[in-house]
TrEMBL record:
This is ATP-dependent DNA helicase RecG. GO terms for molecular function: ATP binding; DNA binding; DNA helicase activity; hydrolase activity. Keywords: ATP-binding, DNA damage, DNA repair, DNA-binding, Helicase, Hydrolase, Nucleotide-binding. SUPFAM superfamilies: Nucleic acid-binding proteins (SSF50249), P-loop containing nucleoside triphosphate hydrolases (SSF52540). Pfam families: DEAD, Helicase_C, RecG_dom3_C, tRNA_anti-codon. It comes from Streptomyces himastatinicus ATCC 53653. Signal peptide: none annotated. InterPro entries: DEAD/DEAH_box_helicase_dom, Helicase_ATP-bd, Helicase_C-like, NA-bd_OB-fold, NA-bd_OB_tRNA, P-loop_NTPase, RecG/Mfd, RecG_dom3_C.
Amino acid sequence: MDCVPVLDEPLKKVLGGNTAKVMAEHLGLHTVGDLLHHYPRRYAERGELTRLADLPLDEHVTVVAQVADARVHKFNSGRGQRLEVTITDGSGRLQLVFFGKGVHKPRAELLPGSRAMFAGKVSVFNHKRQLAHPEFKLLRADSGSDAVEAFANQLLPLYPACKQMESWQIQQAVDTVLGPAGQEDTVLAGLIDPLPESLREGRGLATLPGALRRIHRPRTKADIADARDRLKWDEAFVLQVALARRRQADATAPAAPRRPVDGGLLDAFDARLPFTLTDGQKRVSAEIFADLATDHPMHRLLQGEVGSGKTMVALRAMLGVVDAGGQAAMLAPTEVLAQQHHRSITEMMGELAEGGMLGGAEQGTKVVLLTGSMGAAARRQALLDLVTGEAGIVIGTHALIEDKVQFHDLGLVVVDEQHRFGVEQRDALRSKGKQPPHLLVMTATPIPRTVAMTVFGDLETSVLDQLPAGRSPIASHVVPAKDKPHFLARTWERVREEVAGGHQAYVVCPRIGDDEDEAKAAKEKSAEDEAEKRPPLAVLDVADKLAAGPLRDLRVEVLHGRMAPEAKDEVMRRFAAGGVDVLVATTVIEVGVNVPNATAMVIMDADRFGVSQLHQLRGRVGRGSAPGLCLLVTEMPEASPARGRLGAVAATLDGFELSRIDLEQRREGDVLGQAQSGVRSSLRVLAVIDDEEVIAAAREEATAIVTADPELTGYPELRTALDALLDKEREEFLDKG
């Protein structure tokens, strides 16, 4: 470690090849720094001294006993070995067991007649209680009760582990890196501390070496709290500096201001609206138009409850950009949704969507659709309309991102349901402008990463929390099909009642049920899966059984992603026109589908869907004047986390509240990276929901530093920490926005 900073030292040089290989492959730990920042997830207390005769099962205990016997057993043709040690304290006997490399030390030290303290979790094997891989400390003849008490009360770190490497092995590796107790500060003295000294002292935070020593080797619970407080600040502050620098770069990036003109397209559209905008729509529109009028790119998240009128707000923004001489593109995740948006927007605009066409309004523009399944002639015309500027608005799917698609002057990109798109896809569309276009991202339920970024203050956020007049509430209920089969029967009766009242219903399933789908499901299904006892979970199966059973005589049709685009569009048209009573579908109807007469939704195997998905699906009903009904069918037991999740969805229609529940369950993903779940989270001790105060304070400190010293020339340690955090992938991610 002479020339290399301690954190950069490869683990294989410190721990040996095999251990380092397992840590790299299964835990993503490659260097000493990676290991030291692999913090314990919790701590166990060894427990008070316990007599062998009184050992409680499944609890951590500490015993003082004498070794009566120790034997090594070979297995696996002599390649494996197991050490079994029998100990006694006069009140009873207990077996200890050690495997693999963990055999060497106890074999050498736990000789018959020796006396020691042993600590571990009591388990049962072959009807006998035992301790597997217990910690132990030999006692000398003069060891007093103080030494025994200190051992018994020590806090034991429990690390995030894996099948190939248990927590106690990770603790051994950390002990190897930190060296003997009392010498940790010598080993950690060369650490680069990202927190400026004035900030650390002003906030009363521990030094970095002190925090790492206390997190891995705490003497008291106060040590753990001090360490976590300091390490949370490291994560929050360095991230906030990265985001503050990005905000500053965004504020100085050039963009063309897009201001609506008096008497233009937007005014003509507003004049023909058959209703009044809600106060929320007016407020959010004002925020967006203020952003569009500036000479740097808008970067705004529009969070609106399902049915709150986000599309209307986005359309008015697009019309304002067209007024200013630019073009607007709306990116939709599916062809069904793109077609739905195109149909509803052209209907709302009327002759204003027929600019340059016979009968079109003078202030009008052309609104074109661009999807992958369009015919060659229609596609050529759409591309021509875009490159010439004839079309002011384009609505499309991923087809908009292709290289052949060129714009005359792209001024605004609207991304609908942003969780369905990757950053690269949004970036590819934004790169088609002469200057960076303004960006408006819409979502009904922010995915965890979006909530995280919102809390971190990286996105300007507008909230539509008011439903337009005439929208109805949605009642949601969990249907425990396995516990109460009659509830499922009642579910289908309710669907019939809605249809009898002149309304329509959706039934949503997780699978399609065609041959390809079945083959995949067969691979995933375990031998114990009692599929025949479950309600059918695939669209094709469910539709057949409903049509022949509880929904016989009703007009039941299917909709799923493998149908031809024309067939999907035709089914949706018939459903929208009232020609279908019950639509059995996959999540292809998750977003944007707007059929006001559909009042009921049954979600089969609802526990297989995420919180955000359930909220999105539920938003397809209650879109008219009649109340909506959403029934969440599940076979999961009442005490399961899945039932708890469904109960939370049924209990609230608040998208932000549901996103917080989702975030608490799934973690925030890699806040600076592209992962959408907690697996690759760059946050180890910082929790976005619980630590909002720390994040807000860190943002304040980071903004002040970046404003005064944008290049961080006066903060070389912080710059180094930032470079380590912003590897090439994350740097590109931030640049793309």
